[in-house]
Structure formats: structure tokens, C-alpha cells
Design a protein that fits this description.
The chain is an alpha+beta fold and 227 residues long. The protein contains 6 helices and 12 strands. The protein folds into 2 domains: 3-90, Beta-Lactamase (2-Layer Sandwich); 104-223, Histidine kinase-like ATPase, C-terminal domain (Heat Shock Protein 90), CATH 3.30.565. The strands form 3 sheets. It has a 5-stranded antiparallel sheet. Strands 7-9-10-12-11 form a 5-stranded mixed sheet, with helices on one face. A hairpin with a 2-residue loop joins strand 11 (211-214) and strand 12. The longest helix has 13 residues, at 108-120. The termini are far apart.
Length: 227
């Protein structure tokens, strides 16, 4: 996979390339998740509906929703009659009720490792970590965070492997008191998600400063407030 292909593969927005008979030729990771909420035929119809009349690319801004997925725009492009590509643009989803987080300056990696260690006791689950090592110490309510993350791991306890990823949300920030704060995410994923536990988790998070996304993975988004 070339560097350019990797950028497409890990894009935050779903991309799908169709053949002329509506079969998927290729798609990125986000598009795979999207297909859990809709169908090939529905997305192909969307692509052909918003394609330009002649060969080329066309971007349209509109509101789309497929289950938990919300989009604000679509780009469709084709250069011949054999293939047509489509990219959907996800609506920014980080909306924190009370951005000024209470708590203490804490090393987020220490908290995550603590949760993993606790949940691995007496378990055969393999915990895989993919951490961006550059997240600074942040202001966070450690007790609330540990409670939420532990509940997230319970949503995946039927798996033999659980993946945990910590990364910056490039280009996203939250602003208050005339200051901008970057956002980072903690993403937990596995082959099997217990939907009932995920519903219970949503009620726990609803009154917190963590914004959570549930797809085939669970992601919590946190502002990097360092003082």
C-alpha cells in the first residue's frame, strides 16, 4: 500500500469505489463501518444521484443520516462508464456540554494502562495497544474516566482480542474562554460488540464531559486541557 493509499484508507470520512453494476471495487475502513448501517445498493444509488452530468467530480452539501452516521456533504467522481467513486463527509460530532473539565493533571496513558491491567486479571483476552506517545498530561476527572473506560472494555469482553488506540483528532478543536483546545480520542474495538452494555454505557456518559461515539468500535473524545 502506497503512502497516498494509506491516507485514503485511514481517512476519517468513508470512501467507496463502485463498478458500473453497483459492485464495490474498493473501500476504506470508515466505509466498512458505514456498510453496517446501510446497503451497497443504497449507497450506489446515492452516488449516481449526485454524480455530475458529464465525466468529472461534483461536491454537494446536504444532510444525510444512516443509523448513527451523519454527513454534511458528498463528492462523486467518475472518468468513464466503468467506475464511480464516492466520498461522504462526516458531520463533526464532538459537542461537549461543559468543556471546562474539572479534575487534576493526569497522564492519560497511566489511566488507560491501569484499566487494561484491571480488566485483564483472570482473562485470556489479548489487549493490543496503539498509542500516539505525544499526548501531554491533561485535566481530567480520573475516577469518572476509569469508570467509563472500564465499562467500555466490558462491552468487548466476548472477544479474544481488544484493540485500544489513542490518537489526535487532526483539525478538530473546541473553543471557550477565547482559547482553542485540541481534541484526542481513545478508541476501543473488537470483533464483537455487546450492544446491550453499549446502551447502558451511553446513559453513564450522557452526564459527563466525555463525548462518545459507538459504531463497531467505541470512541471517547477528550479536550486537551493542560491547565
Amino acid at each position: 500500500m502506497t503512502f497516498e493509499q494509506q491516507w485514503l484508507e485511514y481517512d476519517y470520512n468513508p470512501f467507496i469505489l463502485f463498478s458500473s453494476n453497483a459492485k464495490i471495487i474498493s473501500l476504506n475502513t470508515e466505509a466498512q463501518f458505514l456498510l453496517g448501517a446501510t446497503t451497497n445498493s443504497e449507497l450506489f444509488e446515492l452516488a449516481t444521484t449526485y454524480a455530475s452530468v458529464s465525466f468529472g467530480f461534483k461536491t454537494t452539501f446536504l444532510e444525510l443520516e444512516f443509523g448513527r452516521y451523519k454527513f454534511f456533504g458528498i463528492t462523486v467522481g467518475y472518468e468513464d462508464d466503468e467506475q464511480i467513486g464516492m466520498k461522504l463527509y462526516k458531520t463533526p460530532s464532538v459537542k461537549l456540554k461543559n468543556p471546562k473539565t474539572t479534575g487534576e493533571l493526569t497522564n492519560i496513558y497511566t489511566l488507560v494502562d491501569l484499566c487494561i491491567s484491571t480488566n485483564s486479571i483472570g482473562s485470556k483476552i489479548k489487549f493490543i495497544k496503539e498509542f500516539d506517545p505525544t499526548i501531554p498530561e491533561i485535566m481530567i476527572d480520573s475516577n469518572s474516566f476509569i469508570k467509563v473506560l472500564s465499562k467500555i472494555y466490558l462491552c468487548f469482553k466476548e472477544n479474544s482480542e481488544i484493540n485500544t488506540k489513542i490518537y489526535y483528532r487532526i483539525g478538530e478543536h473546541i473553543k471557550f474562554e477565547d482559547k482553542k483546545y485540541s481534541i484526542f480520542s481513545i478508541e476501543v474495538s473488537g470483533a464483537i460488540l455487546n450492544e446491550q452494555r453499549a446502551i447502558e454505557l451511553q446513559s453513564l456518559v450522557s452526564n459527563s464531559n466525555f463525548y462518545m461515539e459507538i459504531q463497531n468500535k467505541i470512541t471517547i473524545n477528550i479536550p486537551m486541557i493542560t491547565a
